[in-house]
Design goal:
The structure is a single chain. It is globular and about 40 Å long. It is α/β, with parallel strands linked by helices. It is 36% helix and 23% strand.
Length: 133
């Protein structure tokens, strides 16, 4: 068996009123879950502007070019607050790109016992962001 891990990507919508430590905690949780699933979270795409999907489009392009098929989000609401838009973006990932979307908030509570910090932060994670000027 190989010790290499498959790449995965993260996506989160950073609310302007959310504290930086909340975003850092979400990033760490996504990294830990990826590691527990035998994946390496290689990039996290941040959306900073309300209504923007620039970082989402960047994520789509990276998935197309790398072939990585796992995406981690804190919750599906990070894709969009609007239900139809959320479904459209999720469909684009799942059906358009054959990606698997892992939402942290959909995990059973006992999953926290399985996901540990060991090795989760040992790998460097590229962080990407898109914002409107």
């Amino acid at each position: 068996m190989s010790n290499t891990t498959s790449p995965a990507h993260g996506y989160l919508r950073a609310c302007s009123d959310a504290a930086d430590h909340e975003a850092i905690t979400l990033e760490q949780d996504m990294k830990r879950l990826a590691t527990a699933k035998g994946l390496q979270l290689t990039a996290i795409f941040h959306e900073f502007d309300s209504g923007s999907i620039d970082a989402f489009n960047e994520l789509v392009e990276v998935i197309r070019s790398t072939g990585a098929r796992d995406v981690f989000v804190p919750s599906l609401e990070h894709l969009a607050d609007n239900g139809p838009l959320q479904r459209a973006l999720l469909d684009r990932l799942e059906f358009g790109l054959s990606a698997t979307v892992h939402a942290l908030d959909e995990l059973p509570h006992h999953q926290d016992d399985v996901v540990t910090a060991s090795g989760a932060d040992q790998q460097g994670t590229a962080v990407s962001s898109a914002s409107r000027e």
